[in-house]
From TrEMBL:
Gene Ontology biological process: methylation
Taxonomic superkingdom: Bacteria
Species for this entry: Nocardioides currus
Record keyword Transferase present: yes
Coiled coil: none
Limits of the Methyltransferase domain: 176-270
InterPro entries assigned to the protein according to its UniProt record, in alphabetical order: Methyltransf_25, SAM-binding_MTase, SAM-dependent_MTases_sf, WH-like_DNA-bd_sf, WH_DNA-bd_sf, WHD_Rv2258c
Molecular function in Gene Ontology: methyltransferase activity
Keyword entries, A-Z: Methyltransferase, Transferase
The protein's name in its UniProt record: SAM-dependent methyltransferase
Domain S-adenosylmethionine-dependent methyltransferase Rv2258c-like winged HTH: 22-95
CDD domains linked: AdoMet_MTases (cd02440)
Length: 353
């Protein structure tokens, strides 16, 4: 049995981690990490000057980061100002948007919760919700930035190992649908991997669609990649060879209806791929760290977003494989199977026929 001291010690560690998350969010959004990584070591005055921030706040943050072991510091009490620096490993995790170890966006996601907390409390009392739109740019950009390295570096190789999907994508003139495309990085990665395909992204969040459109243009793919603000119910029937839904089914208030619309949008013989969280097959109180962080996302972001729509099924982030399989069957797919794609971040891939 745990003692009160054991519980207090555990919670103290949690509180310290929470402080680190918020401090990482500050350093990410204010450009402090990036300046230290790109421009080199700095005093608080120098860092504030580089980033257009206040030196007193910069000093407090720098000292906290050094005490927490995220930054290195040189100088002593006799020096006018201490000099702070970031090593390569910390810089990769906190600033390298191409690295699979890039985690700063996750702090940004939890930072987005702060302004909405009164709304969350009300939702928990009434059964309402907090929408993706209300969570704002921090959440929207966080998800796009956190997922992008995996799409850029791993998605093409992962799909190349699935002939049923790869062969359809590689067919000249293939039409591809990306449901819930978000910032569009999944659509862009598919377009780069399959240069003879044409891709359409749809999303119900208008700001995400704007971001996806700009990202496709910036990637030089606007001639083959389009994104539009629309409900899946508006999809043209029999238009696509392959459909995808990347990390979004668990957010949908009406997933069966969306999957059914995607099924109708497929040509005869077309297939759909769903990528969602690789949580355990069943709830257990001794869940691992993946379960714990997914419940965190669910409590504060995904479940409230889903519940913000009327008559939501309220799936939540911790969507078990059996739940997705049931949604797929109810949507009219003949079979739902787990694809043999492993070591792909937090995610599991399903094939719906």
């Amino acid at each position: 049995m745990a003692t009160a001291d054991d519980v207090a010690e555990r919670l103290l560690g949690s509180f310290l981690g929470f402080v680190d998350v918020l401090a990482i969010h500050l350093g990410d959004r204010l450009g402090w990490y990036r300046s230290l990584a790109d421009d080199g070591p700095a005093t608080a005055t120098e860092l504030a000057g580089r980033t257009g921030t206040h030196p007193r706040y910069a000093r407090e943050w720098l000292e906290q980061q050094a005490v927490s072991g995220l930054l290195e510091v040189s100088g002593d009490d006799g020096a006018p100002e201490r000099v702070f620096s970031i090593d390569d490993a910390h810089a990769e995790v906190l600033t390298d948007a191409t690295s699979l170890a890039y985690l700063a966006p996750i702090a940004r996601m939890f930072g987005a919760v702060g302004p909405t907390f009164p709304l969350l409390l009300d939702a928990y009392r009434t059964g309402g919700g907090v929408s993706w739109e209300q969570l704002g740019a921090d959440a929207r950009e966080s998800q796009a930035d956190a997922n992008r390295p995996w799409y850029d570096a791993q998605l093409a190789d992962a799909l190349a190992g699935v002939p049923d999907v790869h062969d359809r994508l590689a067919t000249p003139g293939a039409r591809v649908l990306d449901v819930g495309c978000g910032g569009g990085w999944s659509t862009i990665a598919l377009a780069r991997a399959y240069p003879e395909a044409r891709l359409d992204g749809v999303d119900i969040d208008e700001a995400s669609v704007g971001m996806a459109t700009a990202n496709a243009a910036g990637a030089g793919l606007a001639d083959r990649v389009t994104s539009r603000h629309a409900d899946a119910a508006t999809l043209a029937e029999g238009a696509y060879d392959v459909a995808f839904a990347f990390e979004c089914v668990h957010d949908m208030p009406h997933p069966v209806e969306v999957l059914a619309a995607a099924r109708r949008a497929l040509k005869p013989g077309g297939v759909m791929v769903v990528m969602d969280e690789a949580v355990a097959d069943a709830f257990a109180p001794d869940g691992d760290e993946l379960e714990r962080i997914m419940y965190g996302f669910s409590l504060f972001i995904c479940l409230p977003d889903s519940m913000s729509s009327p008559d939501s099924v309220g799936t939540g982030t911790v969507m078990r494989a059996s739940t997705l399989e049931g949604y797929g069957r109810d949507a009219g797919f003949e079979s739902v199977s787990v694809l043999p794609i492993e070591d792909f971040g937090f995610w599991r891939f399903y094939l719906l026929r």
